[in-house]
Prior knowledge:
TATA-Binding Protein; globular
Amino acid sequence: MNHIKLIESQSGLLSAELASDIGYDEVPVYAEKVLKYLHGNVVSRNVLPDAQLWQVKIDGISLELVYEDFPQMVSLEATSKEGNDLLRNLLPTLWGLIKDIRLA
């Protein structure tokens, strides 16, 4: 995946699709790189057999970093209107994230 796709759910919350080529076992390393790049931190982690859900904070705003195995995807998801605004504002940074993390 070489682009960021911003999707609005039926509830009106946004999700930024970050990577479709990260496997289940690679998620922790990838997630830590994403959070370091975005100056975020982990609040909690839930690891399931087919998904991983990380509660995170970026700029003091709660988001979820989610891995699902079908279809395989890592996404950064808003949990509030403030999260929607943050994702929109982070879009240029997320474009850089794709390039920089892949090169690291």
